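Data card: per-record layout.
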Amino acid sequence: MVQMVNENITVELLRHNTWANLGVLDACAPLNDAQLDITVPATYGSIRDTLLHLVRSEQIYLSTLTGHAPDEPLQRDQFPGFAVLREQIPRIGAGLAQEAAQRRATDTCRRVTADGVEIVPVGILFIQTLQHSTEHRTELNMILTHLGITPPDLGGWCYAEAAETAL
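The structure for this 167-residue chain is written out next.
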């Protein structure tokens, strides 16, 4: 049986999130330009656009939690390449996990919106992070399936097996 690395449930959920983000990124990395640019109805956009949106959003969520701008902010419409995203995902994931380990769900942070600044509970920001990433990974898996490629299994049991192997 797998032993959890951390007793904090949110931290472990965020570790799974990072692992799953890397898994879908790695599944998409070998694709050619035409495949990376394909869109499928009911998804966010192309594989490139969705990957950038997913990672950029997590970067913004971390920045919202810490109150500090990222050292290397990802730009909205500039796909930085797989190597940059592969470097960013673990860094952002570790930062989110660190924040989760130190914060309570009822703590608050300042979120900048189109209408100004709002104060939100940290717990809500973590819920948004996990739900948002899961939604876009599902869309990416839909596009992979449309292309005839078996998407990675990013479920909890596969994460447990990967975590066990890493111990």
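Known properties of this structure: The CA atoms of residues 101 and 119 lie 20 Å apart. The beta strands are 108-113, 116-121.

See the next section for split statistics.
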